[in-house]
Amino acid sequence: MLPEFVRMLVERADKDVELFSGTSVPYYSDEHIDDLLRRLDELDRWRKRYRRGTDARATCTRMIQRLRVELRHVRSKLHPVE
């Protein structure tokens, strides 16, 4: 699971991104946003399994924070605020 997240996060914006399902879509697409939201939801469920203060929970929290940054970036490019 972690290698897939890392690979997705380092994709360049000028390329397609591979979704969790294995299909490729344009980086700035609604499908990409939906995939990020699904991953965030899944990670949040995993994080809730761990007690506060554990390394596993902290790792999940950092991945969630990074995905939220990625989601904001993709949304800002797809739907710019004027």
Explain what you see:
The structure is a single chain. This protein has three helices and two strands; from the N terminus they run αββαα. It has helices at residues 2-9, 30-48, 55-78, and strands at 16-18, 24-26. It has 82 residues and is mainly alpha-helical. Helices cover 62% and strands 7% of the residues. Strands 1-2 form a two-stranded antiparallel ribbon. The chain has one domain.
**Multimeric status of the protein:** single chain
Q: What's the Cα radius of gyration?
A: 13 Å
For the termini, the CA-CA separation is 37 Å
Mean pLDDT: 83
Order of helices and strands: HEEHH
Q: Summarize the main sheet.
A: 2 strands, antiparallel
Spans where pLDDT lies below 50 across 5 or more residues: none
Tell me the domain tally: 1
Which strand order do you get reading across the main beta sheet?
Answer: 1-2
Beta strand %: 5-15%
Helical stretch count?
3
Strand tally is: 2
